[in-house]
Structure formats: structure tokens, C-alpha cells
Amino acid sequence: MEYSHSDTDLIKQPIGYWSWAAYNAVVTRIRASLAGIGTTQPQWWVLAQVARADTVKTRDEVSRLLRNYLDTGPETMESEIDSIIAHGWITEDAEGRLGITAEGRAFYDKAAALQNELWAERHAGISDDEYLTTLKVLQRFIHNTGGRAWHH
């Protein structure tokens, strides 16, 4: 791969720009790919939470967990949950418990396979050690600037 600058010049490059550029490239690719199969990234998050749950989760639990992802917000998460219920991928009972339908399981499997392909694409040529170092460095930048971030 050809890099944008020499190592000497890369050290002087702004992390804010490069972290934004990486975010933009990755999220744009994910969202376009998910749109190609008829879903949004927040809908995928909800579907994955319900499909992978060891115990039944409520709407409130799922919404609270996901609403801060990429600044999605509570209103958007509630709307996205409503949307996947309308698609027939999950159900909600009177107590707000969410369950996956057979159609939802089939769609989840399709979307999960796509996500696995995208993961492999993103990680091509990047070792686990490099990836681990990258995440630790990004978390240190967050810590050093007084930010907060946490992912399930």
C-alpha cells in the first residue's frame, strides 16, 4: 500500500483528520452495503442485539444500549426499532420484550454474512496485533482529551 506521506511526515499528521477520514470511509461503506440489502446500520444493531441475546431483551434495554452509537439518539433508535417490527423481523410483547421472527432470523443471517465480508475487507493486510494497537491508541486519544467512549 502507498501511504499519503513519509513516516517522518505522517508523525506530524493530525489524528482528528485521520480518525475522521477512517470513520467516514468505514461507516459509509457499511451503510451503503446494508442499504443494498434493505436495512440501515441502526436496524442491524437492533437485529443483532435481539438475535444474539442469551436472554430476552426489552425495547428499553436495546434502545439504551444503542442510542449513543455514532450519536444516533433515542428518537432515532425508537424509530428504527419500530421499523424492524414493521418489517416483521422482530416482535414486541406487551412488556416490551423483543423477539426475533423466522423472517428476522433469515434476514439476520444474510446481514451477518455481509458484515463478516465487510470485516474481512476492512482487516485485509492488518494483523490482530496491529488492530489491537490501533484500538488502544485510539482509546488513549479519547482518554487524553477527556472524552468518553464505550462499546458493548
TrEMBL record:
Gene3D superfamilies: Winged helix-like DNA-binding domain superfamily/Winged helix DNA-binding domain. InterPro entries: WH-like_DNA-bd_sf (IPR036388), WH_DNA-bd_sf (IPR036390). It comes from the Bacteria. This is MarR family transcriptional regulator. It comes from Streptomyces haneummycinicus.
